[in-house]
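Regression check, calcium ion case 392:
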Amino acid sequence: MKSKLFNLPIVIASFAASATNINAGPFYHEDSGFVVIEAENFSAQHLDDKRRWLVFSKNTATHNFADADQAHYHDASNGAYIEVLPDTRSNHHEPLVRNDNFTNNAGTMAVLSYPVYFETPGRYYAWARAYSTGSEDNGVHLGINGQWPASSQRLQLCEGKHAWTWSSAQRVNTNHCGTPNTIYIDIPHKGVHTIMVSMREDGFELDKLLLTKDKSYIPADKDKSETFNNPKPLQEKTQLFKISDYSRILHAIDDFTIENTGEIPYYQHKAENALAINAVKTAYRNKFAHAEYNVQAKEVGNYTLKLVTLTEIDGESTYIVSINNKEIGRFTNPETTTDYQEIYFNMQDVELTKGDIIRVSSKAVTNGKVPENGGTAFARGRWRALVLSKND
Ligand SMILES: [Ca+2]
Ligand SMILES: [Ca+2]
Ligand SMILES: [Ca+2]
Ligand SMILES: [Ca+2]
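Current build output:
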């Protein structure tokens, strides 16, 4: 079972490290007309019962497949490469067996996939960095999206034996070594396309692929680094941190109506996305302000309600939730040393009917701890949301 090890693509450290990127593999994109791929970072391999691309690096275990040469990872880009094995035809004395150790039918044996996002469609000249030690290990097919265009079949190396060598030559009947700079792939439109590799001759060793829109570009040595898709971090939420299982969030500012009953009003504290009481006005202190929500037909059902309030250092406000003037919850914020921490108060088993009026009330209070203008500062009864979680 040791050989199974060979089948695993190398995982790039930067992709493996992030917990929020667990499913991300080495996905490529075009960067300014270039796509650079480490061959060992393929996403998938198919049709590999007879021949299979195996990854070689300093971490590779020994194997017992037919193979005429030693491993060549020392000079390989990224310290790793792939070879399609077994290699039962390493020289022309060994018999050629079609669809076994050789195939001119591109896309039928040991097919690798590399998904790439292309911003720029058009013609890309394709180069392969390969290592050949004989005459029967130096041809490979390239393709795109399951197609194997005539322009990208039979990539061939002749020169540069026993060294990692770039080639973009296509083998033709009149020149078995291939015509230099003739392999190309046309990208039909902007979007994700799968660049593909398949076996032509077993024993082929492939280190790296380079696609360029620049016909005169000639890669050298290990050339450019891989062109990875490098997404920016996703936007994380900055509020309602612990709300993860809900049917509907009723936002204090957006969904509640500030009740106009002649009692004290709320104002909208936009920066904190909360309703609040302007406790600068002494007449607004120690009295309840109210806001209401009218239950819609689609919200009828049995719920757990969660009131989200915000702590304030200068007082512990009281909150009341009622439905049709019947109180279903009364809560007081805990003491805090940090302003605007979210506090969650639960109300279980709440039946909501169409037309019900949900009212949230709160009060501006002081705990006498924060001096202000000869007196002490008041908490403003801030709250952010009422969260509805439907019970099954
Ligand atoms: Ca070998
Ligand atoms: Ca061979
Ligand atoms: Ca070989
Ligand atoms: Ca490589």
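Comparison notes: The domain at 2-212 is CATH 2.60.120.260 (Jelly Rolls). Residues 13-17 form the longest helix (5 residues). No diff flagged against the previous build.
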